[in-house]
């Protein structure tokens, strides 16, 4: 996806240092401002998480010019907690296939420029291009900016529950959201 201000594309090895630096920038920002995530520097997210996503072709980056503005991980791997979520698309059509969004990260210095919106829209188009039926994600109940973004983009909150974020951080107040692609506008 390209526009006059933003380019979003699959990440390359050359992008990895900037993605990891963005994770550190985010952690530093949350130490001195309101913390909306429960991420822990050195625990999650880490270079290992970004590298694993890069190697599976799931890491995507948003650039303003040559500057990293944000990143997102998109794959079809649902965390174990998703099995107990009463996903409407799955209940209507058990064969429905989903793209799962993980670790949407917009650099704090890029906030307010539409990068989160652009990354989520890109992911929805990526899912549609792959012939998938739905996009799913999870976020913390306390993450008001993310909740607002996802609901603005048509994601419905399905339920709340516990989640082991990144497979390592326990969080009891988590929300599970879904957007069917048939209503993508």
From TrEMBL:
Where the record annotates domain N-acetyltransferase, the positions are 6-182
* Keywords linked to the UniProt accession: Acyltransferase, Transferase
User: Which InterPro entries does the record match to this protein?
Assistant: Acyl_CoA_acyltransferase, Bact_Acetyltransf, GNAT_dom
Protein's UniProt keywords contain Transcription = no
Which GO molecular function annotation, any one, does this entry have? acyltransferase activity, transferring groups other than amino-acyl groups
State the Gene3D superfamilies in the record.
Answer: 3.40.630.30
Q: Does the keyword Acyltransferase apply?
A: yes
Q: What is this protein called?
A: GNAT family N-acetyltransferase
| Organism from which the protein derives | Candidatus Desulfovibrio intestinipullorum
Q: Upper lineage ranks? A: Bacteria, Pseudomonadati, Thermodesulfobacteriota, Desulfovibrionia, Desulfovibrionales
């Amino acid at each position: 996806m390209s526009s006059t201000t933003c380019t979003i594309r699959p990440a390359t090895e050359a992008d990895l240092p900037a993605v990891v630096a963005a994770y550190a920038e985010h952690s530093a920002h949350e130490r001195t401002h309101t913390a909306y995530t429960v991420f822990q520097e050195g625990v999650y997210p880490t270079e290992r998480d970004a590298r694993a996503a890069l190697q599976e072709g799931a890491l995507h980056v948003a650039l303003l010019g040559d500057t990293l503005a944000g990143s997102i991980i998109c794959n079809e791997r649902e965390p174990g907690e998703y099995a107990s979520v009463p996903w409407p698309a799955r209940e209507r059509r058990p064969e429905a296939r989903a793209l799962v969004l993980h670790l949407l990260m917009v650099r704090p210095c890029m906030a307010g420029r539409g990068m989160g919106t652009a990354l989520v829209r890109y992911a929805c188009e990526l899912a549609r291009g792959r012939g998938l039926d739905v996009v799913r994600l999870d976020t913390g109940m306390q993450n008001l900016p993310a909740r607002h973004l996802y609901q603005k983009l048509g994601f419905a909150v399905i339920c709340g529950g516990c989640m082991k974020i990144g497979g390592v951080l326990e969080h009891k107040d988590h929300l599970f959201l879904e957007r069917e692609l048939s209503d993508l506008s």
